[in-house]
Write a structure and sequence with these properties.
Elements lengths: L22 H15 L3 E11 L2 E13 L13 H17 L7 E5 L5 E5 L2 E12 L9 H16 L9
Antiparallel strand pairs: 1-2, 2-5, 3-5, 4-5
């Protein structure tokens, strides 16, 4: 019951029902729609650092790819449609970043949108770099693994497939 008194003579605690769509839920629905509209997919690969003859994994790069709504249209970086896709990718990247005390340094490429072919599509791509906060050359640890896993989970929750759109 909404107005049920608390035990042991405490004052009545009134609990309001949660709104049907809070701002976070609305944002998630909006991003899910953009994932579908722009056929956004992703993949991750290791980030390495070379020091002398030693090559070690220091983190990851997570690439987000999206395309125009019309698959055979070639992106033109100055077009409004390009900016719609780029903005969608950038907002998605910001949304998937973990928010709590991370030991990782997370960098979203800023206006470094590259174009890459994907079948009959020409994708717009942005990258998130995940390395240790205490130094870009520190070896990979559990923090970077957890960070990547959290971002991948959010992408899958939004319906963004790994590797390519089916």
């Amino acid at each position: 019951m909404w107005n049920e008194p608390r035990h042991h003579g405490s004052p009545v605690e009134r609990m309001e029902p949660a709104p049907a769509t809070d701002p976070e839920s609305r944002k998630e629905l909006e991003l899910r729609d953009r994932v579908q509209r722009h056929k956004i997919c992703w993949h991750a690969w290791p980030e390495h650092h070379v020091c002398g003859s030693e090559r070690r994994q220091v983190g990851f790069r997570l690439r987000l790819l999206g395309s125009y709504e019309q698959p055979n249209t070639r992106p033109i970086t100055s077009s409004a449609e390009f900016w719609k896709v780029y903005t969608s990718l950038h907002e998605l990247a910001r949304w998937i970043l973990p928010q709590e005390g991370e030991d990782s340094d997370l960098q979203i490429s800023v206006f470094d949108a590259s174009l890459t072919p994907r079948g009959d599509r020409q994708d717009i791509m942005i990258t998130i770099k995940i390395v240790h906060r205490q130094g870009f050359d520190r070896p990979l640890d559990a923090g970077e693994l957890q960070c990547l896993a959290a971002m991948e989970e959010k992408l899958l929750r939004l319906g963004a497939p790994r590797e390519r759109w089916q």
